[in-house]
């Protein structure tokens, strides 16, 4: 197994701040991105939203992987992500924090080894653990009954 993988994509400007993203080497449809008004027209998600989506998506996939590793077949997971933007010391906007709330489709008590799955799923998440090198990421997991079963870094 190789110790390195490469992911490639291409961007092409459509108009103003709108770009078309192509996921090279895949059959994935192109994605339109755009800045919100007043810069852009909001024809697609902006980079900050894409970053929050990437973190939340990766966490959901990692949680699913971890639960299945312990022979669970969980019902659908869901997530809500909030990216907090703040101005830095130079007055430039930066993503300062991302908070992700994951929700299990099952009661935690109905899942095998849920404590072990919760203890390790964040470590499987490529995007979150990479983003955490520069941005605070907080992760909470609630089960289908609303019980908090995991609270991660802030």
What's this entry about, in short?
With 154 residues, the protein is an alpha+beta fold.
Structural overview:
With 154 residues, this protein is α+β, with helices and mostly antiparallel strands. The protein folds into 2 domains: 1-45; 47-151, K homology (KH) domain (GMP Synthetase, Chain A, domain 3, 2-Layer Sandwich). The protein is built from 3 helices and 7 strands. Strands 4-5-6-7 form a 4-stranded mixed sheet, with helices on one face. Strands 1-2-3 form a 3-stranded antiparallel sheet, with no helix packed on it. A hairpin with a 5-residue loop joins strand 6 and strand 7 (148-151). Helix 1 (47-69) packs across helix 2 (114-124).
Q: What CATH architecture label of the largest domain applies?
A: 2-Layer Sandwich
Looking at the structure, the CATH topology of the largest domain is GMP Synthetase, Chain A, domain 3
Extended strand count: 7
Shape: globular
What distance lies between the first and last C-alpha atoms, to the nearest angstrom?
34 Å
At the first level of CATH, the class of the largest domain is Alpha Beta
Distinct helical segment count = 3
Strand order of the largest sheet: 4-5-6-7
Main traits of this protein?
alpha+beta; four-stranded mixed beta sheet; 154 residues; three-stranded antiparallel beta sheet; GMP Synthetase, Chain A, domain 3; 3 helices
């Amino acid at each position: 197994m190789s110790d390195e993988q490469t992911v490639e994509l291409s961007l092409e400007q459509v108009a103003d701040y709108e770009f078309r993203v192509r996921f090279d080497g895949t059959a994935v449809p192109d994605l339109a991105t755009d800045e919100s008004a007043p810069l852009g027209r909001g024809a697609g998600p902006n980079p900050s939203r894409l970053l929050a989506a990437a973190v939340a998506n990766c966490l959901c996939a990692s949680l699913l992987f971890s639960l299945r590793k312990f022979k669970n077949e969980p019902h659908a997971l869901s997530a809500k992500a909030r990216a907090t933007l703040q101005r830095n010391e130079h007055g430039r906007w930066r993503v300062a924090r991302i908070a992700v709330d994951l929700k299990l489709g099952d009661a935690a008590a109905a899942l095998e080894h849920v404590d072990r799955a919760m203890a390790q799923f964040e470590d499987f998440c490529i995007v979150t653990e990479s983003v955490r090198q520069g941005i605070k990421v907080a992760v909470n997991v609630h089960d289908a009954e609303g019980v908090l079963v995991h609270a991660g870094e802030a």
